Amino acid sequence: MSTVIYPSPIFGPVHSRRLGVSLGINLLPADGKVCTFDCIYCECGFNADHRPKQKMPTREQVAEALEARLIDMQQNGPSPDVLTFAGNGEPTANPAFPEIIDDTLRLRDKYFPRARVSVLSNATMVLRPEVHAALLRVDNNIQKLDTVSRAYINKVDRPTGHYDVDAIVEGLRAFRGHVIIQTMFLHGPGVSNTGDEYVEPWLEALKRIAPQQVMIYTIDRETPDTSLSKATHAELDAICDRVKALGIPCQASY
Fold first, then answer.
1. Model confidence, pTM
2. How far apart are CA 107 and CA 109, in angstroms?
3. Are 19 and 140 in contact (CB under 8 A)?
4. Residue 9, preceding bond cis, omega within 30 degrees?
């Protein structure tokens, strides 16, 4: 089983299925994974298999490395479509996350003002006021909601601490539309969130959240649980159509 552990604090650019030419910003250690979920489909592997020894990068380290890379891209290309907070776990877990967002917006405006700043998050920190405020400042506030089923969440997303999905939905609703919901659909022994018993309550949650967009996707890389398989094109298309019927734009990535 191969896993992806990203350099820190800057990696790429990579071509994102959903975002285009993406320069990655990894706020977690470069030698392992730090996440508030332990998803069985995570390309970075299980948390226990990749315990880091290094520390999280500081605000100053991130700003210095990001500026150097942006200068290089300005001189040599390519131009980024987006600066994306992702990497080896949950980016909002870095205690300097709000300040790093401020620095990133400033550097973006200086070197590539047309680029968008995106955050890929599992939504576990959205109830923290300082994180909520920082996420309101980015262009693409992309938050995960795979389901509202507690049993599925505990079996697939596997939160490492307290996780109240009802409270998270309310936290997502509090963005007042400045949020993009991303959802992973998949199949596996005893786990599949493509059926009506999962999709219909999820659609009800989307009505409450009223996001600006929904991104649905399926497995693209090797997963630590090797028994998992992709949702089909037909399944994703059908779910996407149901989201659009609510008046919410939806993008499916296969």
1. 0.96
2. 5
3. yes
4. yes
> Residue 52's pLDDT is what?
95
Instruction: Tell me whether the omega of the peptide bond preceding residue 13 falls within 30 degrees of 0, making it cis.
Output: yes
CA atoms of 192 and 74, how far apart (whole Å): 44
Residue 32, H or E segment: none
Which residues, listed in sequence order, are joined to residue 195 by a DSSP beta bridge? none
Q: Decide: 43 and 222 in contact? Cβ < 8 Å.
A: yes
Identify the residue whose tokens are 């539309």.
Answer: 177
Angle at 126 between CA 122 and CA 128, to 5 degrees: 135
Residues 115-166 pLDDT 10s: 999 999 999 999 999 999 999 999 999 999 999 999 999 999 999 999 999 9
Is the distance from CB of 134 to CB of 97 less than 8 angstroms?
Answer: yes
Instruction: Pull the structure tokens for residue 158.
Output: 């596997």
Spatial separation of the C-alpha atoms in residues 224 and 45, rounded to whole Å: 5
CA angle 83, 84, 89 (to 5 degrees): 155
The H or E element that residue 38 is part of is: none
Position 4 scores a pLDDT of 85
Helix axes 233-244, 196-209, angle to 10 degrees: 40
For the chain, the first-to-last Cα distance in angstroms comes to 22
Report whether 205 contacts 147 (CB < 8 A). no
- CB 212 within 8 Å of CB 178: yes
**Tokens read off for 167:** 């409270």
DSSP per-residue codes, 61-87: HHHHHHHHHHHHHHHH-PPPSEEEEES
What is the reported pLDDT for 60?
Answer: 98
